[in-house]
Design brief:
Cytidine Deaminase, domain 2, globular, 5 strands, single chain, 22% strand, 164 residues
């Protein structure tokens, strides 16, 4: 019996806390196009590798934090719902906007982009975190899943754009 108590004392306790390293202005964007032209998008366009970021928004659709979830290769970036939503949960986000770049210059989504967007939207619905949009930025323009009606927004009021 004493041996069990000794083993149990070696199990680490996890403590969660948020570290605010960058002050985000609480910027509110009103359309997918505004997000696609934001400083977040401009930074993605400078990258020679795919990067996937998640913008975390409060109930008023103001950006409260963001996270670079994944940095990949020239043609892909590994994205898993668990990693994507970890930061959103820790920042108490009410909604998220996903954004990634295509270094090739073509903003059209790949089959993998379509599949991960569906998975992320399902996970968001389970967690109660709204997915406002997934935007792909490239030198050839941008692609909004919301504008192309590939984000269904069941948990949000209907709008012609992301209404963020």
């Amino acid at each position: 019996m004493a041996e069990k108590k000794k083993l149990f004392s070696f199990i680490p306790q996890v403590e969660l806390s948020m570290v605010r390293e960058i002050k985000v202005s609480g910027q509110k964007y009103n359309s997918s196009e505004e997000v696609a032209k934001s400083e977040f998008a401009q930074n993605l366009l400078k990258s020679d590798r795919e990067k996937f970021i998640c913008l975390h928004l409060n109930i008023k659709n103001q950006i409260i934090s963001f996270e670079i979830v994944s940095t990949g290769s020239l043609t892909s970036s590994l994205v898993h719902p668990r990693e994507v939503y970890k930061g959103a949960i820790l920042s108490n986000a009410a909604s998220v906007i996903f954004m990634h770049n295509h270094p090739s210059g073509d903003p059209e989504p790949s089959n993998d982009d379509m599949e991960i967007t569906r998975r992320l939207e399902k996970a968001g619905n389970i967690l109660g975190i709204d997915v406002l949009d997934h935007i792909i930025v490239a030198s050839g323009g941008f692609y909004s899943f919301r504008q192309n009606k590939l984000i269904d927004g069941k948990n949000r009021k209907e709008s012609k754009d992301v209404d963020i």
